[in-house]
């Protein structure tokens, strides 16, 4: 179908709405705090394995459970049209409060079975934070939308990395890490209610119609952007989830694996902002193709540094951490620019849900590859096909007439 024109605002395009920078900063702060529960269990996985005598299989499910929960939450939200019927501010705050409580309940979990269930619940609720945040920031930005969405993804990246930093600092039992992450998510939800509001470019509210999900994804540009996103997501969360295990298994690895993991994941935060700025000027398809080529190259090369000097491993890891997530927001930006405005929330949530479903498979495959290949050195090679397929999808998108609506005609 042909997308409906974007809603007309009384604010001239040449005059950005007053206060949008402050709202963006407040939103990023809330996202940093809210997303800390995502990797809270992964950051203390060694302690949980020792406490509960967790098997390799159960440890994998503790990591995958959040992804699966996010998929269930995103699927439910997309099928009901919830992101297009409930104001994003209310949806984000309610989901953040629920995620904090689900994460806090880990302190009372008697074993891995109940912990996995709680991680699934956390993921379900996370689906009410991340997609609405992208929709909310888009109501403030038409010009500069790439850097704005990139800033939100950078905040998500930093929030995801923070539990590793808390754990690397030492001095806290695993319960302290879980408690700190839950408190941060509660504060993030409160911040959403106190400091955020929708901007002058609101997307129209939609009624619930099941056929709208197919309609939202039937747009060619949205479909190809989702294809690019799937290639990107095959690599991203598997790398984030298993980098600590990869670094800790390296011969001669000291006690700095948690700190280096934090630095590698956190390197993506400033990279997301820079990539958004470049995408607004060079084009989103050009930017995503270049970054996926770089990150795929790092996935292929990091095994070569396994027995090399630590500085080389750290350099490749930091480059990978920066490039593997920097393009993430641009796939969402394409949806907001080329999709039907009445279905933007549903399309974003469906795109993210499909992507996170794929991450669960990738997270499961990487340790299997490590076992099959005799160790962690070459395990990340299984991630290389993702960015390659993503590059093909974005190159196809760039050739479509719809690409003229992306990044003010830059594609």
Automatic annotation (TrEMBL):
Pfam families the UniProt entry points to: MFS_1 (PF07690)
InterPro entries in the record: MFS, MFS_dom, MFS_trans_sf
An MF annotation (GO) of this entry: transmembrane transporter activity
Database matches in SUPFAM superfamilies: MFS general substrate transporter
Cellular compartments per GO CC: plasma membrane
Gene3D superfamilies attached to this UniProt entry: MFS general substrate transporter like domains
Domain of life of the source: Bacteria
Name used for this protein in its record: MFS transporter
Organism, scientific name: Teichococcus rhizosphaerae
Ranges that cross the membrane: 23-45, 57-79, 91-110, 116-134, 146-166, 172-196, 217-237, 257-279, 286-306, 312-335, 347-370, 376-395
Domain Major facilitator superfamily (MFS) profile: 221-411
Keyword annotations from UniProtKB, A to Z: Membrane, Transmembrane, Transmembrane helix
């Amino acid at each position: 179908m042909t997308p409906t024109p974007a809603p007309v605002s009384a604010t001239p395009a040449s005059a950005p709405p007053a206060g949008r920078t402050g709202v963006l900063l407040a939103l990023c702060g809330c996202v940093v705090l809210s997303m800390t529960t995502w990797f809270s269990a992964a950051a203390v996985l060694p302690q949980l394995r020792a406490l509960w005598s967790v098997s390799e299989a159960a440890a994998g499910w503790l990591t995958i459970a959040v992804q699966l929960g996010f998929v269930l939450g995103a699927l439910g939200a997309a099928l009901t049209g919830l992101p297009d019927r409930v104001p994003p501010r209310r949806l984000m705050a309610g989901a953040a409060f629920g995620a904090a409580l689900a994460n806090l309940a880990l302190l009372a979990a008697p074993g891995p079975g109940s912990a996995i269930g709680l991680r699934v619940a956390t993921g379900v609720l996370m689906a009410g934070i991340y997609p609405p945040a992208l929709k909310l920031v888009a109501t403030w930005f038409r010009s500069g939308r790439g850097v704005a969405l990139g800033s939100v993804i950078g905040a998500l990246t930093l929030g995801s990395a923070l539990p590793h930093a808390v754990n690397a600092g030492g001095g806290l039992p695993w319960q302290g890490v879980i408690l700190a992450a839950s408190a941060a998510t509660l504060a993030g939800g409160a911040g959403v209610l106190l400091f955020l509001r929708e901007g002058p470019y609101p997307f129209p509210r939609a009624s619930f119609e099941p056929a709208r999900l197919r309609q939202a994804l039937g747009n060619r540009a949205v479909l190809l952007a989702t294809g690019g996103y799937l290639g990107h997501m095959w690599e991203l969360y598997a790398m984030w989830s298993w980098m600590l295990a990869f670094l800790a298994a390296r011969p001669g690895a000291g006690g700095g694996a948690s700190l280096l993991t934090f630095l590698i994941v956190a390197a993506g935060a400033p990279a997301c902002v820079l990539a958004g700025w470049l995408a607004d000027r060079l084009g989103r398809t050009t930017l995503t193709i270049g970054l996926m080529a770089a990150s795929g190259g790092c996935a292929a090369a990091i095994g070569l540094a396994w027995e090399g000097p630590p500085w080389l491993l750290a350099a490749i890891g930091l480059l990978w951490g920066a490039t593997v997530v920097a393009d993430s927001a641009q796939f969402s930006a394409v949806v907001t620019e080329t999709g039907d405005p009445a279905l933007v929330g549903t399309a974003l949530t469906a795109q993210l849900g499909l992507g996170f479903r794929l991450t669960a498979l990738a997270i499961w495959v990487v340790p299997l590859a490590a076992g099959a290949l005799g160790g962690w050195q070459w395990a990340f090679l299984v991630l290389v096909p993702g960015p390659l397929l993503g590059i093909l999808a974005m190159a196809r998108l760039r050739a479509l007439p719809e690409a003229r609506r992306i990044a003010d005609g830059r594609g």
